[in-house]
Design goal:
Elements lengths: L5 H15 L1 E3 H8 L3 H13 L4 E3 L2 E3 L6 H8 L7 H4 L4 H12 L7 E4 L18 E4 L2 H7 L6 E3 L4 E3 L4 E3 L12 E6 L3 E3 L2 E4 L2 H12 L1 E7 L11 E4 L6 E4 L5 H9 L3 E4 L1
Parallel strand pairs: 4-5, 4-9, 5-6, 9-12, 12-14, 14-15
Antiparallel strand pairs: 1-3, 2-3, 7-8, 10-11, 11-13
C-alpha cells in the first residue's frame, strides 16, 4: 500500500473503523505504511471534517455501535455467567485443570485466559515459581498468596458477570509478555475451530494467542460438536487439547485429524 493517495488512506482508515470501532495509531502505521506525520495529519483532517473522533493513541468511529462497542457499553459479555458455569461438570474440570498444571515447568512464564476450567489449574501451581499473566480476577484471587507465584494483569475494563478484564475500544493494554504456554477455555469446539460467545472476548483471546508459543485448550466434553459462537482460531492453531473421558470417538477423531495433541484426563 506504499504510495497511497490521501483519499485512499482516508478510505482505508474509515473502512477499518467501520469494522473495528477503534484503531490504534501504531496499527495504522503498519497497515498504511505511511509516515507517522502523514497518518497524524490524515486523522486530524478526518476529525476536523467530523468523519471520526481523534483520541489518544488512535481514532474511534463516530458510530460506536459496532458489536464490540455495544458489548462494552453494556459492560456485559455474551454467554453463561461465571457463577453458573463454574459448578457445571466440576469433577471433570478439576481433572482437566490438574492435567494442565502438570504441563507447567518450574519457573516458567505462562498465560491463563479466564474461564471456569482454567481456574481449576490454580491449586496445582503453588511452588512452581511461575510468572502468570491472566485477565481473570477469579484466577488472580486464587493465585494470590501462593508461594513464589507472580501475577500480572492487563489493563482494561472489568466485566462483572465474568469477572474478567478486557481492553476498551480494541486497544491492546497487555503488558509486554511472551509466554511458552497459553492455557485457555472455550464456549464450544467444532470442526471450524475454537469458539466464544462474545466478539469482545474473541479479540482479547486472539491477542493472547499471538504472544504464545504453545496454545493449550482446556474443555470438558460438553463443549464438543457445537458450532455456535464466533471463531477464535482454527483447530490447526491449537497445540494440545485437554478434555475428559466423555469425549465421543467422532469428536476425538476430528481433533486428532487437525494435528492437535489430545489429552484425556
Amino acid at each position: 500500500m506504499v504510495g497511497m493517495h490521501a483519499t485512499e488512506r482516508e478510505s482505508a482508515i474509515l473502512d477499518l473503523l467501520s469494522v473495528r470501532g477503534f484503531i490504534s495509531f501504531r496499527e495504522l502505521e503498519q497497515k498504511l505504511e505511511g509516515s507517522p506525520a502523514t497518518i497524524r495529519r490524515d486523522l486530524e483532517r478526518l476529525d476536523a471534517q467530523g468523519r471520526l473522533i481523534r483520541v489518544r493513541g488512535g481514532a474511534k468511529a463516530l458510530d460506536a455501535e459496532t458489536p464490540a462497542h455495544a458489548a462494552l457499553s453494556a459492560m456485559r459479555l455474551g454467554g453463561t455467567p461465571f457463577a453458573e458455569n463454574v459448578t457445571r461438570n466440576l469433577p471433570e474440570k478439576k481433572r482437566i485443570g490438574a492435567a494442565a498444571a502438570a504441563m507447567c515447568g518450574q519457573g516458567e512464564g505462562i498465560m491463563i485466559d479466564g474461564g471456569s476450567t482454567t481456574l481449576q489449574m490454580c491449586p496445582h501451581l503453588e511452588g512452581l515459581g511461575l510468572q502468570v499473566l491472566t485477565n481473570s480476577l477469579h484466577i488472580v484471587l486464587a493465585l494470590t498468596g501462593q508461594n513464589g507465584t507472580r501475577v500480572l494483569v492487563p489493563g482494561g475494563a472489568v466485566f462483572p458477570e465474568q469477572n474478567i478484564i478486557l481492553p476498551m475500544f480494541g486497544e491492546d493494554l497487555t503488558p509486554a509478555f511472551h509466554a511458552p504456554k497459553l492455557f485457555m477455555g472455550a464456549a464450544a469446539i467444532g470442526a471450524c475451530g475454537l469458539m466464544q460467545d462474545d466478539v469482545v472476548l474473541v479479540a482479547s483471546e486472539r491477542r493472547f494467542i499471538e504472544r504464545a508459543e504453545e496454545v493449550i485448550v482446556l474443555a470438558d466434553a460438553s463443549k464438543f460438536d457445537q458450532s455456535s459462537g464466533s471463531v477464535v482460531c482454527a483447530l490447526e492453531d491449537i497445540d494440545a487439547l485437554i478434555t475428559d473421558d466423555r469425549i465421543t470417538d467422532k469428536a476425538a477423531a476430528v481433533i486428532e485429524a487437525a494435528g492437535v495433541n489430545l489429552v484425556v484426563a
